[in-house]
Write a structure and sequence with these properties.
With 291 residues, the protein is an all-alpha fold. Helices cover 73% and strands 0% of the residues. It contains 14 helices and no strands. α4 crosses α11.
């Protein structure tokens, strides 16, 4: 009986790991194809028969075309990967940081400050999350065009400065898990609500803040529709638009196209490598998982 139960448990565990392995392969294989194609020569990368390893050796001509051409100005501005990367960082980093601060401050107020209408405000905020963004796309564009913001990065930056509903929801749940006695003790020492938020809550919320920063920044980093609508000047193209233009510049040169894709992925990998501990901790604390 015990042996049969142990055998069943082992079979379930084996099946679980097998399913997880399949999911891992589904995620990893496309990235491997991109990476390995970027280091093949042009003839092998364009061959309809895919090979899992470069049979003609490793070639880095695609990276040289992108990086050297970008630096020397030998490529069309619209397809400049480095310029697109720089534009993506400064256009998205500012609203991500400011918006995260504003959303966190709103979440603290909704979680720890008792005032009339707090539940109604929070419910209304959640209601906005149920509206598909595609519905507001045309009205938003007409509004920005009316005030002269189109063909500028302002529509991509200004709304983000006020934070997002999802971030407010996440941080509110995080703050609700903090003891009220901590706030009461800080107020006895003479701190007001803003002082408690800056000096007590923000330092304690570091893991959650970093995890939200990663989620928000990666979402903005990968945005394609917004920059495509509002950024008509090639000197303002973000990375995603530059990647699309790069495919038009290097038609059928898959080595160079995949090299651009690898370069675009690297910043996110670097961010995750340095911040993964805080990211996992922030998600775990909010979800009740003990680590």
């Amino acid at each position: 009986m015990i042996k049969s139960k142990m055998r069943t448990e082992k079979q379930k565990l084996t099946l679980t790991y097998l399913i997880l392995l399949i999911f891992v392969l589904v995620v990893v294989i496309p990235f491997y194809i991109i990476l390995i194609t970027s280091v093949k020569n042009n003839a092998e990368s364009s061959n309809p028969v895919f090979t899992w390893w470069p049979k003609m050796g490793f070639h880095f001509g695609g990276y040289q075309k992108i990086l050297i051409a970008d630096v020397t100005g030998g490529v069309d501005t619209g397809s400049s990967i480095l310029r697109g990367l720089i534009n993506t960082i400064w256009i998205n980093l500012i609203p991500t940081i400011v918006g995260l601060f504003m959303a966190t401050m709103s979440a603290y107020a909704l979680a720890k400050i008792k005032f009339k209408g707090a539940n109604f405000i929070f419910s209304t905020l959640l209601l906005t999350m149920m509206i598909p963004s595609i519905i507001t796309l045309t009205p938003s564009y007409l509004l920005y065009d009316l005030i002269g913001w189109t063909r500028t990065p302002l529509p991509l930056m200004v709304p983000g400065l006020f934070g997002g509903a999802a971030c407010v929801f996440f941080m509110r749940q995080y703050f609700r898990g903090m003891p009220d006695e901590l706030i009461d003790a800080a107020k006895i020492d003479g701190l007001g609500n803003f002082g408690v938020f800056i000096r007590i809550m923000l330092p304690l919320a570091k893991p959650a803040l970093i995890s939200q920063f990663m989620i928000i920044f990666i979402g903005r980093y990968n945005d394609y529709t917004g920059p495509l609508l509002y950024l008509t000047g090639t000197d303002l193209y973000t990375l995603q638009i530059a990647l699309r233009a790069n495919m038009g510049t290097y038609v059928n040169d898959w080595q160079t196209v995949m090299s651009g894709a690898v370069i675009s992925i690297l910043p996110l990998l670097v961010i995750y490598f340095f911040l993964q501990k805080y990211f996992i901790k922030g998600i775990a604390i909010n979800s009740g998982i003990k680590r």
